[in-house]
Amino acid sequence: MNYFSSQIKAHTDPNFVDKTAVYLPSEHRFSKLSRSLSGYQGVDILSLTQNNDLIEGAYRQQLNQAYEQLLIDKPLPHACVLVAITDEISPRLLLTRRASNLSSHAGEVSLVGGKRDETDRSSYEVAIREAFEEVGLVNDASTLLGFLPMQISKKGLLVRPVVASITPDTADSLIASEDEIQRLFWADLTYLKTTPPMDYRFERPELGRTHLHTPAWLIDDRQIGEPEVVWGLTGRIIANLLHIGYGVRYQWYYHLQAHR
Fold first, then answer.
1. What is the number of domains present in the chain?
2. pLDDT of 128-186, one tens digit each?
3. Assigned domain for 18 exists
4. Burial of 66 (0-12, 13-18, 19+ CB in 10 A)
5. Which domain covers residue 161, as residue numbers?
6. Burial class (CB within 10 angstroms; exposed 0-12, middle 13-18, buried 19+) of 204
7. What is the C-alpha separation between 241 and 48, in angstroms, rounded?
8. Residue ranges in the chain assigned as alpha helix (H)
9. pTM (two decimals)
10. What is the CATH number of the domain that holds 181?
11. Contact, 149 vs 43, CB < 8 A?
């Protein structure tokens, strides 16, 4: 069984602006990070099949061919997420646990964000609109820092991560929308930069008698008394931020191992 079973369809819209140039003053706390994001010269869509045992056989070949075409077509994102970092001495990164009654990604740890609307005119606008709907972040309370390469979700969506900073006061004012978000929490950015994700084992009954091994961070949270597990697309986006923005590289993989 393939974990990924969707077709990737390219979107175009001549009125939509995906990435814009960002210029921050040198004294801004995240000016170096912003320059690193702007100076990235690699591919703008990351491969889904690399180090991924969840995609097998002929379907892997089909996806690789589709991926090569995407690199040529340079499509626009279907969805955008906001990588919101607090502008303070010990920066924090905003994460959420999605509501358990949602039809998509219910109960999963995620960044704020969602699909494009027809009225959205830029990736930044998508991310900020979704952040307002999910946690009440107003559109003038963030500073754009830059963009990360698009990732392909398991539903075949091209997801553009938008990186922005927010003030500590703004961070403390955010409130989870009960319709979409079960709770919000924060990951210490220094912890993420200095602590490699652990090799985490998931039980996946739909994959037969196998375990799924993949990197994950355990984020301690005193509100619920147990750590949140940050992995999957969200974890990979964070790892990509650390690589491009700070030169910290963590390998990302999805490996299957049979029960013994």
1. 1
2. 999 999 999 998 899 999 999 999 998 889 999 999 999 999 999 999 998 889 999 99
3. no
4. middle
5. 31-194
6. middle
7. 17
8. 31-38, 57-73, 123-135, 168-173, 189-194, 232-246
9. 0.92
10. 3.90.79.10
11. yes
